[in-house]
Design a protein that fits this description.
Number of helices: 2
Radius of gyration: 19 Å
Shape: elongated
Number of strands: 0
Largest sheet: none
Oligomer: single chain
Length: 66
């Protein structure tokens, strides 16, 4: 599933770079910057959700997150 998402995002990013039809590296740099910020947002969102999960080894923990 992650590979599918990576390929899908790269297709969209490549298409956006192609739309600009520029002969400089500015569109590529802009797309790299935007996708890096999106990746950081996904990482921070996932990191905050992982803190809410309680593991079975903890005393009194449930199998499902609260």
């Amino acid at each position: 599933m992650l590979g599918f998402l990576q390929i899908g995002i790269s297709v969209v990013a490549s298409s956006i770079v192609g739309i600009f039809n520029s002969h400089t590296m500015m569109p590529v740099a802009a797309i790299l910057c935007v996708t890096s910020w999106i990746g950081l947002a996904v990482l921070l969102t996932g990191h905050s959700r992982i803190k809410q999960v309680r593991y079975v080894e903890e005393k009194g923990a449930n199998f499902l997150p609260h």
